[in-house]
Amino acid sequence: MLKKLAATLIFLLGAGAVMAQEVTYRTHIAPLWKSRCAACHGAQSPERADFLLDEKGYAEKSQGPRMDSYERLIAFIAWPDTGAFMRRLDDGSSQYAGGKPGNMYQYLGSTDEERAANLKLLKAWVGDGAWNLNRWNKRGDVPMVSKEQLDKIKLKY
Question: pTM of the predicted model, to two decimals?
Answer without folding.
Answer: 0.85
